[in-house]
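Hi everyone, sorry if this is the wrong subforum. Our group has a chain we'd like a structural model of before ordering constructs, and none of us has done structure prediction before. Sequence below.
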Amino acid sequence: MATVVNDVVGSSRGLSMNHWRSRVLCLCAWGAAMAAHAGSLTVKMVDSQGHPISDGVATIDRAYQPSAPSTHYVDQKNETFIPYVEVVHPGDSVVFRNSDSTRHHVYTFSPLGAFQFILSPGESSPPVALNRAGVIAVGCNIHDHMIAYLVVATDFAEVTTQNGQAHFDDLSPGHYTVTVWHPQLWPGRPPIRAAVDVPAEGATQELAFTLKLMPDPRHFVDREHLDY
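Answer:
Right subforum, don't worry. Here is the predicted structure as tokens:
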């Protein structure tokens, strides 16, 4: 473990059944061979005490080529954006829901695309198209402690779960660069990245990062506006 501080099958017309079956078997064997040679990577993020860090974003330098744009959903429950961090890709859209009993004013002034919606309880916003790569911070103009981040990535990116891990599967063996980001990293610091070699034959490589984070801003609740 490394650590860092046309038609494929074609028409069957004119082919004998045995010939057709042979071609299918060859394709299946080729696919199985490719899968057998694919490797995987697990990225781990911990703090200085060794505790796992969730909501971090690990990006690997492998271009993301989606089959179609996706729609992502960010909910608001108990005056909290869920999820806190969401990875999307250019061309994707996001919809904001209000599952609270209070009104929310969702907004961002991001140069990647500003928007704002006043959502009453039970309402959802229209889809917002996200076409430019970067990080978009989203807040609530009524409840200052509410914040979320949309990470628009052109490469493969995953968010760490509660165990502080992000997984990348079906990687071709080779040399990759991994960049990590978290909304609570101290500003003004250079990007955190490391190189890693992913082996073949179904093996899993691990890469660990130790991060120093600022306090979680969601813990500073503006109690004066809780019932708005």
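For your construct planning: Residues 3 and 60 are 16 Å apart (CA to CA). Residues 6-17, 19-35 have pLDDT under 50 and may be disordered.
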